[in-house]
Each structure stands twice: as structure tokens, then as C-alpha cells.
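We modelled each protein-ligand pair independently. The example shown here corresponds to the pyridoxal-5'-phosphate entry; the chain sequence is given first, followed by the ligand as SMILES.
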Amino acid sequence: MKKHNFSAGPCILPSSVLEKASKAVINFDNLDLSLLEISHRSSNFVRVMEHAKELALEHLGLQNKGYKALFLQGGASMEFLMVAYNFLEHKAGYINTGTWSDKAIKEAKLFADVVEIASSKHANFNFIPKDYSVPSGLDFVHCTSNNTIFGTQMNAFPQTDCPLICDMSSDIFSRNLDFETFDLIYAGAQKNMGPAGTTLVVVKEDVLGRVSRKIPSMLDYRVHISKDSMFNTPAVFPVYVSMLTLSWLKEQGGIAVMEKLNNQKAALLYTEIDRNPLFKGFVANKEDRSKMNATFSLHDDSHADMFDALWKQAGINGLNGHRSVGGYRASMYNALSLESVQVLVDVMQHLENNL
Ligand SMILES: *Cc1c(COP(=O)(O)O)cnc(C)c1O
């Protein structure tokens, strides 16, 4: 039986998507050829790419609003520097809410001035800073909507008079936001969309082209837009699987339906973390808790061996916390069912009742 996969990333994908993807590896579109051995310029694959981009914009409600969707390579980490290449001339503002924001800041500092508008670094990123003001005269403001490692999630975003850029790698398509607030959104596929190897970038076209530097072609968003994400060979398999997941999302009823389910899953688990005297949550303020990645630990580490044995026996995978936080992390991306969360809650209660 398939495990209950709480892995943080790469992570769970819908089983119907995995089945369709595996068929396409053998025989794609009844071509008697594998998806992996046809030209990316064939009409069959061009259709996949176009459909994936359309679906991404459609889910975000950004069709016909001046935005373009791109499927690039290099992961979200490449976007840390692409954003700087394409937008940073004098000074940028970053909200530092975790390891990923911290890494994005490090890249941006190679280019120009960076102000940390707000940070929770001093508290090992266990909360989302809220009382800050955004200075004027910035080239852009960058934030990270969900902190995969520490288990915090932003619910309010800064008001800016410059482009607002957001790394949504680990919560894109999980909840509705006013996506038009953002001028550029990026997300590595492997958290809520597909396999590692492609990164979705959604960018408002009119904010590009404002820096004076020369941008290498592969790092220039305008080059990728003009070539429809086919400037060079795209990651055909990750794009195909992302397209399947985005189609699956549409069949499920879209982001609104997912958000409801994600709220139920998070409520079920956090209620147990708060109720069960053996466990404690990592995040300081309840309103900052991530609905995608719940971080928690045992009060008493001597129960760890028994707890670890129990969840493994129950068919759970990927529950260990990141080494910088310790304890446990339950990642509850779109494809994870409420039943899987119930299995984890049952194990936590079993531990409490059998000590
Ligand atoms: C995983 C993750 C990244 C890094 O993604 P790569 O594709 O491995 O570069 C960046 N930001 C966030 C929020 C993430 O969760």
C-alpha cells in the first residue's frame, strides 16, 4: 500500500498523476514514442507547455492581466539571483522569515544594497514579523510566503510602491490570495506541483526591463517570455507532470476546494499538537503556523524511539524535522489526504495512551 507521505520536498503527488506520467514515459499521446524521446518542439509537447502555462495563470486568476507564466530550470534557488539580475539596480527590501529568504538575500547582496525590512532570524524564525514599515525608493520588495523548514506562513503581505516579488515554492496553489498584489511569483515545482527540475515563474510583463545592466540570455525573463519557455530545451518531464497536477487541481475544483481541505488537515493536526500533553508546536504565534508544514516536537525526547517506531509501522514517511529545527515536520501539501493526517493523529494518541 502507498505510504502516507509527509515528506517536505520532493513530496507527495496525486496517484492519478503518477499513473498518467508513467504511461507517458512509455507511450505518449499514442505516438508509440516516449515523452522522453520526442522533440520539445513537436506539436505534442508544445501543447503540453502551453496548457501548463494556461492552467497556472487560470488557477491564480491572472489570465489576461498582463502576466506571463514561464517554466524555467535551476530551481527556486536560481530565482534568487534571476530576480536580482532583472530587478536590482540600487536597493531592494527583503523580509527575512527563514532559510530560503536568507539565501535569497545572500544572492541579492552580490548585486547591490539590500535592506532587511523585517526579520525573525534572532528567534530561529519561529514567527512572522508584522510591525514593519517599507521604506520608499526600493527597486522591489521580496518575501517568502511559506517557510518550509520552520513551519511559518505569511497571511498578510507588505504594501509597496515598487514591484512585490514572492517565493511561493511551498504553498503555491494551496490557498487563495489576491495574486494581483504580486508582480512576480516563483515556485520550484517539487513542493506542490510536480517533480524537481522546473520552476514556475509568473511575472507581470510591464515591470521588466527597468535595470540598466546587461543580462545573460538564460537569466533574462524577457528572453524566456519571447521564446515561450523554449529558449533552450525545457525540462520536458517535470513540465508534463506539472501540467498533469494542474489539471488534477482543476478537476478537484481548484484552489478554493484545496484551501478548504488544507484548512481541515491543518486544524486536525494542530488541534492534536495542542491537546496532546506529549507534544509541543515550534511556532510561537498560532496565527503564524503554516498550513503546509507543521513543525512540532516531543516534550520528552526519551519518547522519540517509541514514537518513531509507531509512525513508521503506521506507514508514515518523511516526518523527521529539518536539522535546523529538530523534532518533526508534517508536510501536508495538496495531494495529501485528510485520512493520512488522521493516521498521524491516531499514532500521536496511541503514544499518549500506551506510555
Ligand atoms: C524548497 C524551497 C526552495 C529551494 O528550492 P530549489 O528548487 O531546491 O532551489 C526555495 N524556497 C522555498 C520557500 C522552498 O520551500
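The pocket of pyridoxal-5'-phosphate is lined by residues 9, 75-77, 100, 144, 148, 167, 169-170, 188, 191 (CB under 6 Å).
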